[in-house]
Amino acid sequence: HGGGASSGSERPSARPELLVYATLLRTKKTYLTGAAAVSALPALLLCAVRVDASEDCTRLLVDNWLCVDLPSESERAAALVGEAHALRRGLSRLLRARLPQAGCEA
């Protein structure tokens, strides 16, 4: 038996994770391919359509429905929000530069 089962006595992770996957393969059973665990906060910040933050970044509202409270991590959260914003701007620029080359109109 693998280490995937959790006993009730284990503490939850201090840094929650999300399961991401490349493909959902459906046969008689459903399989996830290319699955990996990623840190939840960076993944949310990179994949969200919209992120609203309190002035001190201790509370984030992701896509107008998911509220993330980070009461003791305002500096870390502010840094992550800034990094995610910069990454998203860079990705957007790259996509805009590439799409016309592929014959797509954006």
Please tag this protein with its features.
flat; two-stranded antiparallel ribbon; disordered N terminus; 106 residues; alpha+beta
Structural notes for this entry:
There is one protein chain. The chain is of the alpha+beta class. The chain has 2 helices and 7 strands. The strands form 3 sheets. Strands 5-6-7 form a 3-stranded antiparallel β-sheet, with no helix packed on it. Strands 1-4 form a two-stranded antiparallel sheet. Strands 2-3 form a two-stranded antiparallel sheet. Helix 1 crosses helix 2 (74-98). Mean pLDDT is 81; it is low at 1-9.
Overall pLDDT score: 81
The span between the termini is 50 Å
Alpha-beta classification: alpha+beta
- Specify the helix fraction band: 25-40%
Uncertain runs with pLDDT below 50, 5 residues or more? 1-9
Strand numbers in spatial order across the main sheet: 5-6-7
Largest sheet entry = 3 strands, antiparallel
Strand proportion, as a percent range, falls in 25-35%
Total helices: the number is 2
Topology:
Layout: E1 17-20, E2 23-26, E3 30-33, E4 36-39, H1 40-47, E5 51-53, E6 59-62, E7 66-69, H2 74-98
Helix pairs in contact: 1-2
Précis, in short:
The protein is of the alpha+beta class and 106 residues long. Helix content is 31%, strand content 25%.
